[in-house]
Amino acid sequence: MQLPYSSAHPFPLLLAPMAGVSEAPFRQICRRMGADVVLSEFLSSEAIRRRIRNTLEGAEFEEVERPIGIQIYGADPNAMAEAAGLITEHYQPEFIDINFGCPVKKVVQRNGGSGCLRDLDLVDRIIRAVIGATHLPVTVKTRSGWNDELRDPVSIALRMQEAGARAFTLHARTRTQMFSGKANWDEIARVVQALDIPVIGNGDVATAEDIVRMRDHTGCAGIMVGRGAFGNPWLFRDGRALLQGGARAPAADATERFRVAMEHARLALRLQGDNRKTVVEFRKHLGWYTKGLHGASELRQRLFQVESMAEAEAIFLEYLDPVTAVA
Ligand SMILES: Cc1cc2nc3c(=O)[nH]c(=O)nc-3n(C[C@H](O)[C@H](O)[C@H](O)COP(=O)(O)O)c2cc1C
């Protein structure tokens, strides 16, 4: 099944949209490490319509990030259409993705994100309104339903396809599950069977082996990785190697991890501002890059307190070579 945008591989690996994480610096790192497609964090259509600066900044990206989708959410079809038009005109991404999956209370209370899953007529109107406002392909991302009672991903997916969605990503959990339990990959397989448009599988891909397992289990057209990429952008490269039947490269050692962490940090300073806010928000990434290293918890405690990227670099250097660093 052909995706509505071109990517380096016919079976693309996508970086999931993740608020506070899938920002331009991390997107660029993941693209360098083999992610074929990236998405922005979800952006409020109301805020875009009102030209709120912070939100519009979330739609900015650099050429190296292409192919990229900008993700928008909201429960008002008019606002969604206006936002899609503005994003198309000013940012020209490869596609626009509609978020029907966000479980966060503040969003669903106003029927945004997965809140829409309680009203599929509204979902239909939103998709049609967005398609009417842009020449770009419009894709959708959703969960398996609002709760166990309303869990019916196939009907939801068919409805979205009928409204004109060009690709469908399923995070196979309900809204009420939030992140508990396991994503149900059987549901992804069922949706793949039922739809004509490409289905992208998402949920609980933590290793390169999981990428192959999800493809084989579901027959999906591509795989989207979220939390598994935290501090581990190598997952895309390793997943690609296994998909192609090759051997994966040796796991990134501490030196390689710190090198990429600092590359990521420099991108953050350049793209998000050389200031304390950028450093504070970057601390989580620093912590994630240490996962699994000997003495990681102590290292993380120190990294969570850094006030500058130079301080983080000094901590890394000391870890790699305690004798020289102290001398
Ligand atoms: C910190 C965080 C932020 C997220 N923000 C978004 C978002 O902005 N838009 C969206 O569609 N999904 C968002 N998600 C959901 C992910 O895109 C993905 O569907 C989910 O994490 C399951 O995939 P995973 O098991 O690979 O992490 C977010 C998830 C996390 C952990």
Molecular structure report:
- By secondary structure, the chain is of the alpha/beta class.
- Helices cover 46% and strands 14% of the residues.
- The chain is built from 15 helices and eight strands.
- It has helices spanning 24-32, 45-49, 53-57, 77-91, 105-108, 120-132, 153-163, 185-194, 208-218, 234-243, 254-272, 276-289, 296-303, 309-320, 322-326, and strands at residues 13-15, 37-44, 68-73, 95-100, 138-145, 168-174, 199-202, 222-225.
- The protein has an eight-stranded parallel β-barrel, surrounded by seven helices.
- Helix 8 (185-194) links the parallel strand 6 (168-174) and strand 7 (199-202).
- Helix 12 runs antiparallel to helix 13 (296-303).
- It is globular.
- The mean pLDDT is 94.
- The protein binds flavin mononucleotide.
- The site of flavin mononucleotide has 22 residues, from strand 2.
